[in-house]
Amino acid sequence: MVKRNWGAFLTGAADNGEPNQPQRPLDPPVPGTPGAPPSQVSDRPLYPPARARRPVTRVARPASASPASATVEPVIYDATGQAQVPIALPDHEAPPGAVLVAGIDPGGTEWVLEDDPEAFPLVDPRYDHEDKNWVRYRTSWGGFLRFIAFVLFSIWLVFVVRDRVYSWVDGQIEPAGLQGTEAFEFVIPTGASTNNVATSLEGANVIQNATVFRYWLRCEGELTITGFLGCDTEVTFQAGEYELYENMEFEDIVSTFEGGPIPEVFVRFNVPEGLRLSEIVDRLVAVNENFDRAEILNALRSPNLVSDFYAPGPDAPASLALEGTLFPASYDVNEDDVYDESKFLQRMADTFDERFQSLLGELGRDPAILELGLSDYEVIVIASLIEEEAKVDVDRPRMARAIFNRLAQGIPLQIDATVYYAAGKSFTEPLFQSDLDAESPWNTYTTEGIPPTPIAAPGEAALRAALAPADGDWIFWARTDEGGTVGAHTFSVTLAEHNDAVAVCRELGYCG
């Protein structure tokens, strides 16, 4: 039995594992045994030198020139003694036209087996129907025809698969189903990549396959099986909110994104400088009717809502942790956030930290701050004093220097704004001697140094002045509307100069 490899199967060539080597032919019948021809056998080689070739059917013919002279066909017996017609496939590698001796009949005619291309091929007598590895030999054209059939089938299969793939991709780009009728908001977060957007679109059922959408974008809408690997167009979308529908076409999605997000509606809240924490609460309730006072107070008690620079002294109560560290400014608030008190307060606290950190990077710290060993939180406290006392921008840096000079010399600050804070009074109320004499950590008339917490929310100008004060030896100041500027102060080095300034202050009605 002859086994074949894949190439032999296609071409029909025999393959016994040793190419170009002759197969061992069928053993010739032994004279005197059933199925054997007469003992007279020609001495010509039974099997001439062989080379690989396709098998053919061989037919017994008389060796004489006149086949008609042979009137009796040779008789060959099988193992059971039954006579058989001398036609077989005894050799599968003999060269074309080989003549093999079949035997001599009783009449003396020599018979040979010759190739007969027109004869009907017979089954190899060695065929065993129980042998599962047996390979039927084919005609000389069988392998070539099978190869052609295999090629044609492969081409057909490629076209079928290609058509199926293109049909499926087209179904993703232009969905066959109806587009959704109810629009919904689709948000592209800031910094989201194209892959993130595609994944979110699939999750929202706007598209069915994120991978196809990504490659479609990279290929600029010309997606092909062979070309998509070479597509490298980068597409980005503007962050914001969009109105989309389920089951949308890719073109419609991109058109919506290119049109830009839905314009946000903002509400502006203005929180001025110099407000105490309690006044900020009143202000927020006043400027936004959607804020609830109880919710604001509850948010202020959150331990997570605190400035990075908060470093209170021993006398600072926890309820004032945010005093002076909510940045005063005008805020544009999205209409979706006008109901969220905690989020807005967190925004104010984060803004303060960002602005003060930026000023530290820009201005650094004055040498007096380092000499006095003041912390950043204490600088913020000084900035709040400046915010409450100074009325014009030009006074703030000079007032900061005067405060540092008094601290360096151990002189009480004696700032009226701290007395108002300690007494819980507004600036429209009068101060009495009892207020000036009251013992309080915030009363700088009775307590040396600076208060334990800010007394108001300082703005950027006051913070700048505290970090970078003007140069001078001033120790005193009094409001005199100096230079005709309403609210301006006169700064003095000596007590005599200060008394003169106080006299002017009293004439103007600013000093008691």
Note down, in words, how this protein is organized.
A hairpin with a 5-residue loop joins strand 5 (100-104) and strand 6 (110-115). A four-stranded antiparallel beta sheet has the order 4-1-6-5, with no helix packed on it. It has a two-stranded antiparallel ribbon with strand order 2-3. Strands 7-8 form a two-stranded antiparallel sheet. Helix 8 packs parallel to helix 14 (460-467) and helix 11 crosses helix 14 (460-467). It starts with 5 loop residues before the first helix and ends with a helix. The chain has helices at 6-11, 142-173, 194-203, 210-218, 250-258, 277-287, 293-300, 341-363, 367-372, 376-389, 395-409, 416-423, 433-437, 460-467, 495-508, and strands at residues 58-62, 76-77, 83-84, 87-88, 100-104, 110-115, 184-188, 240-244, 266-270, 330-334, 476-479, 489-492. It folds into four domains: 1-140, no CATH class; 184-258, 2-Layer Sandwich (Dna Ligase, domain 1); 267-360, no CATH class; 367-508, no CATH class. The relative contact order is 0.07. By secondary structure, it is of the alpha+beta class.
